[in-house]
Design a protein that fits this description.
This protein is α+β, with helices and mostly antiparallel strands. The protein has 3 domains: 2-279, Rossmann fold, CATH 3.40.50.300; 287-393, Rossmann fold, CATH 3.40.50; 396-534, Alpha-Beta Plaits, CATH 3.30.70. It has an 8-stranded antiparallel β-sheet with strand order 27-24-26-25-29-30-28-31, covered by helices on one side. Strands 2-3-1-4-5-11-6 form a 7-stranded mixed β-sheet, sandwiched between helices. The relative contact order is 0.12. Bound molecules: guanosine-5',3'-tetraphosphate (G4P). Guanosine-5',3'-tetraphosphate is lined by residues 26, 28-34, 53, 148-149, 151-152, 263-266.
Length: 537
């Protein structure tokens, strides 16, 4: 079906209601790429396996920035993947991982309405998952959990569930439960429908027909998998007695996660995830702006920029701003107001992300993402709206964890360096901190790639050749307090550890975790924040 025909199909309320915008959070190697591919195959967006994987293997084989940039020209297209399933329009946003992990990875999570957490059943909860889930928890994002690789020898499922609950602080509501694992993996029991779904390894077709066994004691199980079956029966009793049942309200509040078991590579369990997404995950919800509440099915367009991607040619400051539509409809040529500059902009060449290579879409709705080519005019957190200028929060800066200073190879260019770093800081490429004691700017990032970006841009855009050196800072946390006197006292006594960020907000930069803990204990009147809202109001 053509886009125009698709777009004109339903009134705006219905279009918004059928949107599901989500991201996958996982630790590298848990199976995100494999699962993405299966979801896209299911949704008919790609026809053959290997499409996404091929891209992944091409990507970032080298950390050379130009290579990364070149790949990004391609990867813009795979940043957002859209497909239809059971009447829903599903937007899957890519969370850059591996070497590409940066503040952008976190920011993508601010643009979604739900997240799919993929856990490697052999490894349980891993470091990157903890970090990403923390961001979701802060925002109360509903989480669907997929425990992957059941076709391998993995950990006891009860153990994994327990770990998720303990470490991530989220209640698990198992929806399916596995019978066996590895060579003995016989399938999963659907706790809602009270039947078994039989596992067939190696079936790689998009719409694999899963055989249903009506009885948990089907001879297929008792004869072929006697040990796995007996263990399963014991576990089932525990799960049915002790596990929390699924509760839609708790799920939407981000407190409870429905849990599915499966094997992405075998396309087993993928249909369950899509069903959970279409039936349980929320459609776009209203957002608070300083001036008003923005309703997704409102007639006037509004959207917020959550990510900027530098394009192929840095000399031209070519950028693509990724904007999440919060309300209304985007149509080609739409005239909007840019809140920060209070100037109008015409959106002529926005890129939209459609399934089956329908690249040039003319219409997009709340929940959808559009890419706006620009030359540095748009920044992270910027709001575009029809009519009234809007200040919308929701896109924060995240506490950096890697810190460096830039040492100039030509000391005469220090003024230029400061100006360049300020600009890059304002743009959100990296965070920049100016110590109160004027000891030289400190850059802070959540991923190494951000420094590579800065080094490259300093050289090509500002003609500044600098070497980066690590600084002994553990973390940067923004400080606030209702007690002005205490804040003042803290600023005086701890000035060596304090800095202002690009927006002039005060940040505490302790050298070690222990120093941070002691400070938090000593200054109970102060609050130390792990995020800072860009458009706080
Ligand atoms: P990522 O994007 O989260 O980093 O993970 P990716 O999908 O690339 O998967 C990591 C590895 O785990 C891949 O193997 C993939 O084939 C494998 N894998 C994913 N899902 C399953 C599953 O359900 N069962 C089993 N047994 N393996 C799974 P690889 O050897 O690194 O790559 P490849 O050579 O297979 O492509």
């Amino acid at each position: 079906m053509e886009n125009a025909a698709l777009a004109a199909q339903f009134p705006i309320e219905q279009e918004v209601k059928r949107r599901r915008t989500f991201a996958i959070i996982s630790h590298p190697d848990a199976g995100k790429t494999t699962l993405t591919e299966k979801l896209l195959m299911y949704g008919g967006a790609i026809r053959t396996a290997g499409t996404v994987k091929a891209k992944k293997s091409q990507q970032f084989a080298t950390s050379d920035w130009m290579e990364v940039e070149k790949q990004r020209g391609i990867s813009v297209a795979s940043s957002v993947m859209q497909f239809e399933h059971e009447g829903c329009v599903i937007n899957l946003l890519d969370t850059p991982g591996h070497k590409d992990f940066s503040e952008d990875t976190y920011r993508v999570l601010t643009a979604v309405d739900a997240a799919l957490m993929v856990i490697d059943a052999a490894k349980g909860v891993e470091a990157q998952t903890i970090k990403l889930l923390e961001v979701c928890r802060q925002r109360k994002t509903p989480i669907i959990t997929f425990i992957n690789k059941m076709d391998r020898e993995v950990r006891e499922p009860l153990d994994v569930i327990d770990e998720i609950e303990q470490i991530l602080g989220i209640t698990c509501a198992p929806i399916t439960w596995p019978v066996g694992m590895g060579k003995e993996f016989a399938g999963v029991f659907d706790l809602r429908r009270h039947h078994m779904l039989k596992f067939t390894p190696g079936d790689n077709t998009a719409h694999q027909a899963v055989e249903v066994l009506e009885s948990v004691d089907d001879p297929y199980l008792t004869k072929n998998f006697p040990i796995a079956h007996a263990t399963f029966k014991e576990e089932l009793e525990i799960v049915q007695e002790a596990a929390d049942p699924f509760n839609q309200e708790a799920f939407l509040a981000g407190d409870l996660s429905p849990v599915f078991f499966g094997s992405a590579i075998n396309n087993f369990g993928v249909r369950d995830i899509l069903e959970a997404l279409t039936q349980w995950a929320p459609s776009p919800r209203p957002r608070e702006a300083k001036e008003t509440t923005v309703y997704p099915d409102g007639k006037q367009f509004s959207g917020i920029v959550f990510k900027i991607q530098a394009n192929m040619n840095p000399q031209h400051r070519d950028r693509i701003a990724f904007l999440r539509i919060c309300s209304g409809v985007y149509r080609q040529g739409l005239k909007v107001n840019h809140a920060r500059s209070a100037k109008p902009i015409r959106l002529d060449h926005a890129i939209t992300f459609m399934a089956q290579e329908r690249a040039h879409l003319t219409t997009a709705y709340a929940g959808d993402i559009i890419g706006i080519p620009n030359h540095g005019k748009l920044r992270i957190g910027d709001v575009l709206s029809e009519g009234e200028l809007l200040a919308m929060a929701g896109i924060p800066h995240f506490s950096p964890e890697i810190f460096k200073t830039a040492r100039l190879n030509d000391p005469l260019r220090s003024k230029q360096l400061n100006k360049a770093l300020k600009e890059l800081g304002e743009e959100g490429t990296i965070q920049v901190f100016e110590p109160l004691e004027k000891t030289g700017m400190i850059m802070g990032a959540v991923g190494q790639l951000q420094f590579e970006t800065v080094a490259h841009r300093l050289l090509t855009e500002y003609n500044i050749d600098a070497t980066f050196e690590s600084v002994p800072v553990h973390k940067a946390l923004w400080v606030s307090s209702e007690d002005i006197h205490q804040l003042k006292r803290f600023t005086q006594t701890s000035s060596v550890r304090l800095a202002y960020d690009a927006a002039g907000a005060l940040a505490f930069m302790p050298p070690t975790r222990a120093a941070l803990d002691i400070t938090i204990e000593r200054w109970p009147e102060l609050t130390f924040h792990t995020t800072r809202e860009i458009n706080a109001f």
